[in-house]
Every structure is written in C-alpha cells, then in structure tokens.
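User: Write out your own:

AI:
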Amino acid sequence: MSIHDMVLTVGSTKFIYKVIRNYQNRYNILVLIDLDKGMSITNNAEDVVSEVCKLVIDSSKKTFIIYRDTEGVYDELEADNYIFSGFNLLGCNNEQEAIKKSISRWEKKLIIY
C-alpha cells in the first residue's frame, strides 16, 4: 500500500488530495480534504471528480472517492466511468471509518446483485 498527498485546486476549490493505492490489495482510495478556500468540494463535485479521476493510474481496481467536507464530516463522491454520479452519505468523523464503511456498502451491493 502506498500513500501520496498533494494540494490541488480545481476552479476555485482547494483541497488536499491523498491517494491510497492497493488498499487491501484490491482497491484505490482517493481521500479529498476540503480546505474551505473558495467553492466547496460539495458544490463543485462534477469538476472535482473529473479532475481527480484523471490522476488515477490503475483503473483496473475499484476506486473510492472519500471526501471530508468543510464541517469535518466524511462522505463519498460516486463516479461512473470517472463522471460524478452522486453522493453516498457516510456521515463519518474519521477517515478510516469512512473508508471501511464505503467499502463495506459496495461489497454488500455485490452480494445482493
């Protein structure tokens, strides 16, 4: 598992972008931390998802986009073929809890369908 951090700006949205590659040897996790400068990630979700998805190198693995909003709550940005498709409300207060909850929901969907 490798982790890389950088600060990105998309339009007027400024955030920390963290990539966790090979999480559990199966997933890529993108964690976005809203720096509360300019437009929020929530309000600029389409452009943010479009830009951060361009940075994903291994598209063969399921990628989760977790973000912390300006109030400190972690939720998920959903993408379909790297295009923003909606929000998945996680309501978590820490990053690891949000990652686990997001993966767990996705794995349960696989079992149901």
Remarks:
- Residues 21 and 49 are 17 Å apart (CA to CA).
- The first strand starts at residue 2 and ends at 10.
